[in-house]
Amino acid sequence: MIDLNRQAQLRTAIESLYFAYRGFTDRPDRMLERRGLGRVHHRILYFIGRRPDVSVKGLLDLLAVSKQALNAPLRQLLEMGLVAAVEGTEDRRVKNLRLTAEGQRLEAELTGAQMKHLQAAFDSAGPAAEQGWRDVMVALVEG
Amino acid sequence: MIDLNRQAQLRTAIESLYFAYRGFTDRPDRMLERRGLGRVHHRILYFIGRRPDVSVKGLLDLLAVSKQALNAPLRQLLEMGLVAAVEGTEDRRVKNLRLTAEGQRLEAELTGAQMKHLQAAFDSAGPAAEQGWRDVMVALVEG
DNA sequence: CGGTTTAGGTCAATCATGTTGACACAGTAG
DNA sequence: CTACTGTGTCAACATGATTGACCTAAACCG
């Protein structure tokens, strides 16, 4: 069993993770809302920007959603000209996804808001704290 | 404009936050699923446990949802005997909410999984990293 | 060659979680 | 008495997800 004081510390940590995540997503959410898009669209734009030429399957694995859940928003982004799909050169079944210039613009805008938010927190906490934060986050993702 | 290298670092940070949060919630989610409950129920149990005698309004403000969204799951928890409501002593309109013994048991089980997860990450990253992590999280929540 | 697997797409039914609006009732505060 | 507050509930709707079933086309394999 974990010590009671320690439990209180861990609860504080749980709460900060909850509130931080909530505060972190709601700015881009509000930007997207104005265009009739949702958080999924941001995630799709984000990961395509991060991994240009990712396949639909690759995106599915990253996002951990069903292909039906991905299909509609992705098609929307294609229709809006924010994402482009090119037929795979090796395997003609696969679609390699990329951001168009306009897609890059929107993605930069959305992610930029989050980057500013994070940067402000890092600035206020200092570089040592930032490194510690990164170390803990890596352990959290891996564990 | 932020430096490109810095942008890449910030993107890494964004991703770790996304994946960490996702990994963090899915264990309790799976436990709840077996009882036919959802993440909302966990949040309700959590915050009532944290602030015994909180009112319905207090819970609404904490969770930042509409009262209609809160009502159904809260009623469910009351009916299941996991939460008890007592009439306020000063203001008889308010309901002060508490966990029953069984509610405490379930809450401890759910949050315990998250505490173990966090503790493991802190153990692996070390105490200095933990402090840095906390500092950044506080700044993130406040910003 | 032919059979199986893989990448992708789509339709349908369903569920979970949230919203807003409207209304009710009891209790408090002035 | 009136106004506001805390709580509850009904209805309509939106969003984002699920599973299951079925389809095409391409690749892979024996």
Describe this structure in words.
Two copies of one chain form a homodimer. Chain A has one domain: Orthogonal Bundle (Arc Repressor Mutant, subunit A), CATH 1.10.10.10. In chain A, strand 1 and strand 2 form a beta hairpin. Chain A has helices at residues 4-33, 39-50, 56-63, 67-79, 101-125, 127-142, and strands at residues 83-87, 95-99. The longest helix of chain A has 30 residues, at 4-33. In chain A, 73% of the residues lie in helices and 7% in strands. The two termini of chain A are 20 Å apart. With 143 residues, chain A is mainly alpha-helical. Chain A has a two-stranded antiparallel ribbon. Chain A has six helices and two strands. In chain A, helix 1 (4-33) packs antiparallel against helix 5. The radius of gyration of chain A is 18 Å and the shape is elongated. At the A-B interface, helix 1, helix 2, helix 5 and helix 6 of A face helix 1, helix 2, helix 5 and helix 6 of B. Chain A binds a DNA duplex (30 and 30 nucleotides) through residues 38-40, 55-57, 65-69, 71-73, 75, 88, 91-95.
